[in-house]
Amino acid sequence: MDANLRSYESRDRGALLALSRRALAREEEQVGAPLWASEEELDAELAGLGYRPADTLRVIEEEGEAVAFGGIVVADGATLMGPLVAPRFRGRAFGRSLLEASIELARERRLELLAASLGAHNIGGRLLLERAGFRPSGALQAVYRILPDAHRAIGQPSEGVTSRMAETADVERVLAICNECFAPGTSSEESWRQAIERRQVRLAEQAGEPIALVRVDLANRRVFHGVTAAARARGIGGYVLSEALEEYWRLRPGTPLRLMAPAANVAASRIYRRQGLVPWLLLQLFELAL
Ligand SMILES: CC(C)(COP(=O)(O)OP(=O)(O)OC[C@H]1O[C@@H](n2cnc3c(N)ncnc32)[C@H](O)[C@@H]1OP(=O)(O)O)[C@@H](O)C(=O)NCCC(=O)NCCS
Q1: What residue's CA is closest to ligand 1, atom 20?
Q2: Which CATH number fits domain 4-136: 3.40.50.12780, 3.40.50.1240, 3.50.30.50, 3.40.630.30?
Q3: pTM given for the model
Q4: Residues 141 and 285 sit within 8 Å (Cβ to Cβ)
Q5: CB distance 83 to 99 below 8 Å
Q6: With bands split at pLDDT 50, 70 and 90, how would you rate the model's confidence at 234?
Q7: Domains 4-136 and 145-281 share a fold
Q8: How far is residue 189's CA from residue 206's CA, in Å, rounded to a whole number?
Q9: Are 138 and 285 in contact (CB under 8 A)?
Q10: pLDDT tens digits, 55-80
Q11: How many CB atoms lie within 10 A of CB 269?
């Protein structure tokens, strides 16, 4: 039977999860997206897209089964998903076709950039991306997995640090911390405004000055954590993160989260490990100018 490239359908869910878990389990196959380890994570991310998954996700079907998967996610720019090809079906240009289809999906939407990320040891994926014109961007990133049961809460380092959900009036203060803490292009101003409106950004203050923030995106379960230079090395950053995570899990018990930080940021890695966050993947980011 011929292979058939078509839109994602909900019946592909099991095959997709198996492909994602396989890639996650092998350094040489890791991708930055998807990072689905459970059905629950896959369902949450697809439900949170804000559009039909079939609009931007593609599968290749053969023998009545989804054997390869790819596409893009459009949220604050476009990010490549996969491609992931079941081992038995590799070497038949399925990966390349899905990558081409993904680039086309981004072009159709008149986007300027397509972002991608790959495990630092994924040589096959890198060759595939570079042949399609993608270029590495920025330093290696560590992705930490945050499991509620493994989290060790941190006590308040000093009186006078308070935190609350950021409100619309805090936008400029939040953006100032973002500009100081995150690499340009990490996340757009518009997405921070939306996250504030959705009450996903917690702002910490000391003596009335904003000193740190934590944002948790509901759909892809990604955590952003930023601490101003003035507040670093005083136990504040770890505490603010810990408090935000515990608060998040009070409302949504059991939800695994993830956080990305430059692998070379030793201070961040110490904070995260101390509270039980587990380094999970090492990623190289890529970009394709469209
Ligand atoms: C990488 C992957 C998607 C390739 O799928 P595939 O269908 O076998 O790839 P194709 O047949 O379309 O080959 C396309 C190109 O991939 C590259 N490639 C893929 N795997 C490779 C490997 N192990 N060694 C060398 N080159 C490789 C080659 O550049 C090849 O180009 P060529 O045919 O001109 O030599 C597949 O091996 C896979 O699912 N790997 C795990 C997940 C992953 O790495 N995804 C890539 C994300 S960008």
Answers
A1: 124
A2: 3.40.630.30
A3: 0.91
A4: yes
A5: yes
A6: confident
A7: yes
A8: 24
A9: yes
A10: 999 999 998 899 999 999 998 899 99
A11: 17
Does the CB atom of residue 23 touch ligand 1 within 6 A? yes
Reply yes or no on whether the pLDDT at 224 is more than 90. yes
Confidence of residue 3 (pLDDT cuts 50, 70, 90): confident
Find out whether the beta carbon of 25 lies less than 6 Å from any atom of ligand 1.
Answer: no
Task: Give the C-alpha distances (Å, rounded to integers) separating 239 from 4, 55, 213, 260.
Answer: 51, 41, 11, 18
Distance from the alpha carbon of residue 91 to the mean position of ligand 1, in angstroms = 7
Among 26, 60, 85, residue to substitute to test ligand 1 (most atoms within 8 Å of Cβ): 85
Length of the chain as a residue count: 290
Give yes or no for a cis peptide into 157 (omega within 30° of 0).
no
Q: Ligand 1 centroid vs 24 CA: distance in angstroms?
A: 16
Of the listed ranges 88-92, 173-177, 183-187, the least confidently predicted one is 183-187
**Ligand 1 atom at minimum distance from 122 CA:** 44
Of the candidates 25, 41, 37, the residue with the CA atom closest to the CA atom of residue 121: 25
Every domain of the chain and the residues it spans? 4-136, 145-281
Look up the CATH number of domain 145-281.
3.40.630.30
- Rounded Cα distance, 92 and 104, in Å: 20
Which three-class secondary structure state does DSSP give residue 125? helix
CA-proximal residue: ligand 1, atom 28 (nearest)? 128
Q: Are strands 57-62 and 4-7 parallel, antiparallel or unpaired?
A: antiparallel
**What is the token pair recorded at 81?**
């998903």
> Model confidence over 131-161: pLDDT tens digits?
999 999 999 999 999 999 999 998 887 778 8
